Amino acid sequence: MALEFRPLSEAIGTEAVGFDLSDDLTENQFSRIRQEWERHCVILFRGQKIDEDAQIRFAERFGPLAKTANAERAAKSNPAIMLISNIREDGKLIGSLPDGEMHFHSDQTYIEKPATGTMLYALEIPSKGGNTLFANALEAYDDLPTHLKAALSGKSAMHSYDTVSTLRPSSANLGPRSFIHPIFRTHPPTGRKALYVNRLLTQYIVGMPRDESDAILNELFAHQEQRSYVYEHVWTVGDLMFWDNRSCLHARTDFDASERRLLRRLTLLGEKPY
User: Fold this and answer.
1) Nearest C-alpha neighbor of 82 from the set 108, 119, 116
2) How big is the CA angle at 137 (ends 131 and 142), to the nearest 5 degrees?
3) Does the pLDDT value for residue 6 go beyond 80?
4) For the residues of 228-243, what is the DSSP string, one character each?
5) What's the rounded Cα separation, in Å, for the pair 55 and 68?
6) How far apart are CA 265 and CA 81, in angstroms?
7) Which of 41-50, 171-180, 182-191, 257-266 has the lowest mean pLDDT?
8) Among 270, 267, 261, which residue's Cα sits nearest to residue 242?
C-alpha cells in the first residue's frame, strides 16, 4: 500500500495511511510522520495491531517517555504505560480516568514541564460515546481578537489539579499539583504561538482581579472550543492517536459506564513552556 497522509478535518489532524507500526519504520518514514504530527497537531493510525513493546518503540522515537504519575495505576509491565479504563478486576479499577465526560485540556499543565505528546491506543471501545475531541490551539491564537492579544501578552495563568473528576472543579482552591504557565506559549517545532489555557485545569490569570480573570478565561475557553477548531474522533479498536499537547487541547464525550473501555496511554517528557 502506498504511504500517504489525509486530513482528518479542516481544523486539525492528519491520518497516516499505509503504515504498519508493528514493523520498524525507516528513517524517512518516521521523519515524514514527525513532520505531519508537528504540522497538524494530531496524527491517526487506523487498524493497528501492536503490543506494548511495539507501541513503546514507536513512541520512544519521538523522545523519552514519562513514568505514570500514579504508580498504582501504571501497568505492571512498564511504568510508562497508563491504562485508561473503566474495567474492574476483583472490584478494583485496572486503569485511570474511567468514566464520564471530560472537559477540554492539555495534559499535565499543572506541572513545570507538561507532557510534549500523548499517545493513545484503543483495545476495547464502547458501542457509543467516549469520543475524543481535539481543538487547534494554534489557530485559536491566530484568530484571537487583537485587543485580547495585546491585553494578555506576557501574562501567565495558574493551572492546578487535585481531583479524580474529569470536569472542572467548583472550588477555587488550588491542589498540591499546581504551576504557572504563559497564556500564549510557543510551539517549538513551528515557532507559532498557541493559546495555552484550558477549561479543566486553568484556574486564574496571575496578577488580575478574580472577577476580571474569570470573565476573560471564560471568553478564552469559549473561543478555543468553537467547532471550527475541533475534530471529533469516534474510536474503533486498533486506532492509535498521537497528539501534541503544545499545540492542541482534547476532551472526551460521555459513554455508558456499563460498557467496557480500555486504551493504552504513553506520554513524552516535556519542556517548560515559554
Assistant:
1) 119
2) 140
3) yes
4) GGEEEE---TT-EEEE
5) 15
6) 6
7) 171-180
8) 267
Strand partners, 252: 102, 132
Pairwise CA distance, residues 196 & 140, whole Å? 10
Give the three cell numbers for residue 48.
Answer: 493497528
Grid cell of 128 as nine digits: 457509543
Amino acid at 60: E
Q: Is the pLDDT of residue 174 over 90?
A: no
Question: Phi-psi region for residue 43, left (φ > 0), alpha (ψ -120 to 50) or beta?
Answer: beta
pTM: 0.93
In this predicted structure, what is the pLDDT of residue 2? 73
Q: How many CB atoms lie within 10 A of CB 110?
A: 23
Quick one: DSSP state of residue 26? P
**Segment 119-140, tens digit of pLDDT:** 999 999 999 999 999 999 999 9
What is d(CA 169, CA 154) in angstroms, rounded to the nearest whole number?
27
Identify any residues that bridge with 14 across adjacent strands, giving them in sequence order: 7, 43
